[in-house]
Design brief:
This protein is mainly α and 421 residues long. 53% of the residues lie in helices and 5% in strands. The mean pLDDT is 84.
Length: 421
């Protein structure tokens, strides 16, 4: 699992071609698929067909851009010109063979069989002591973890929680929303979701499963101390150390990351993140007051924890200020590129809905279209402002409630597995 673009896809790519790792490329929510087939009582042939229909990106890297163009599954290899394919026919054949051995069809058996069938269809052998890497991804997919625990029990499940400095994560969320062209009006709500995830995400996991073996992986360690980190990881999982773990791949081909700039070229050594500017320093002061033990377990440096700095009244007042990420989001709406994009979307909408008009009415029609564009822009703009201040108020309420909550589960029980201290 991951929080605020913590680097789970990079971590997955490092494990991608380890001979003892069995997985689909990237994220997969099996429980969602199981609910669909279980309700309809499909047989194994129908299940295989439906899986291939629902997940075409697992069988053809060129389909990946339909889901997430930033993942670059069609630009693999040293020359950015390779992709991957997996035979659907072979996958179906392998799944049919495995299902005969593992009857009846239940969620546990199908979860294992569907992973192993894909592993075989990818041309790989299944060796002893292999493990399934199940990339749940976001904390909001907690039901997927519940499925694993229910079917396999805590003693057979280990969870890696991948994250980075919370403020760095919020910065990257604002930037990511621009890169993926999320709708303007939805951005304040998305930002609030991720802020709530920072405060409460890991707590929801630890509260639900006290006996689950959960370890933290920090993104900066994944980049700066990769060899040490992954040697400790293989020891924890009891799998063999392989040098292939040091290179990010997708189906064994060099993967360049899911950012605008290729990871392997843009990141050589990642510096530790430090809050910058008045607003971000203030954000860190408040976070340091809410979860100081977790900050320590993450290996981060908290803000000044003196009684004067941690005065509740002072922190309550400081929480009324905008967070740095909120300020950046607010500024983004008056960005020239964003305004052009809003008008472009409006023009496309108008052009798609406007009927053909007589040439004699074209002048009047042009005036009406321009007036309509202005009206629609105002609607988008004020909708964003309304959503922004609504979520701004929710964030203040959340912050104040957490500052005054003596029962907030700030725990240091969940340690960094891959510490280099």
């Amino acid at each position: 699992m991951t929080s605020v673009r913590g680097g789970s896809k990079l971590f997955h790519s490092l494990l991608d071609f380890h001979p003892q790792i069995v997985s689909f490329p990237r994220t997969f929510q099996f429980n969602r698929f199981w609910r669909e087939i279980n309700l309809s009582k499909y047989n194994i042939e129908e299940i295989a067909d439906l899986f291939c229909e629902n997940y075409p990106r697992f069988f053809d890297g060129k389909k990946w851009s339909d889901i997430n163009p930033l993942d670059k599954a069609e630009n693999l290899g040293e020359g950015f010109n390779e992709t991957f394919t997996v035979s659907k026919k072979e996958f179906k054949n392998q799944l049919l063979k495995l299902s005969i051995e593992h009857k009846p069809i239940n969620s546990r058996n199908l979860f294992v069989d569907i992973h192993v069938a894909y592993h075989y269809a990818s041309g790989r052998d299944l060796i002893s002591n292999s493990i399934i890497l199940y990339h749940i991804h976001a904390v909001k997919q907690l039901k997927e973890l519940t499925f694993c625990i229910d079917d396999f029990q805590c003693k057979h499940v280990k969870l890696v929680f991948i994250t980075k400095h919370p403020l760095e994560g919020l910065r990257s969320i604002v930037k990511w929303m621009g890169n993926v062209s999320s709708s303007i009006k939805s951005r304040p709500g998305i930002l609030y979701y991720y802020l709530d995830e920072i405060y409460n995400g890991i707590n929801r996991v630890s509260d639900m499963y006290e006996n689950l073996d959960v370890k933290i992986v920090m993104l900066d360690q994944m980049i700066n101390d990769r060899d040490i980190l992954l040697k400790q990881f293989t020891s924890w999982l009891k799998i063999d150390w392989k040098y292939s773990l040091l290179t990010p791949t997708l189906h064994g081909k060099l993967w360049w990351g899911n950012t605008k700039r290729p990871i392997n070229k843009s990141i050589k050594n990642k510096k530790n993140y430090h809050p910058k500017g008045l607003l971000e320093i203030n954000d860190w002061r408040i976070m340091s007051a809410i979860f100081p033990k977790r900050i320590e377990s993450y290996g981060l440096i908290p803000h000044d924890t003196s009684p004067k700095s941690q005065s509740n009244i002072r922190l309550y007042l400081l929480s009324l200020l905008p967070m740095h990420c909120e300020w950046c989001l607010l500024k983004s709406i008056i960005n020239r590129r964003i305004i052009k994009r809003i008008f472009r979307d409006i023009d496309q909408s108008v052009n798609n809905t406007s009927p053909e008009t007589d040439n004699n009415l074209s002048f009047i029609n042009t005036i009406l279209i321009k007036a309509n564009r202005t009206k629609l822009f105002s609607k988008v703009f004020f909708n964003f402002i309304f959503q922004f201040f609504m979520n701004y108020s929710k964030r203040i309420s959340l912050t104040i409630s957490l500052l005054g909550d003596n029962t907030y589960p700030d725990t240091d029980d969940i340690k960094r597995l891959l510490t280099t201290d």
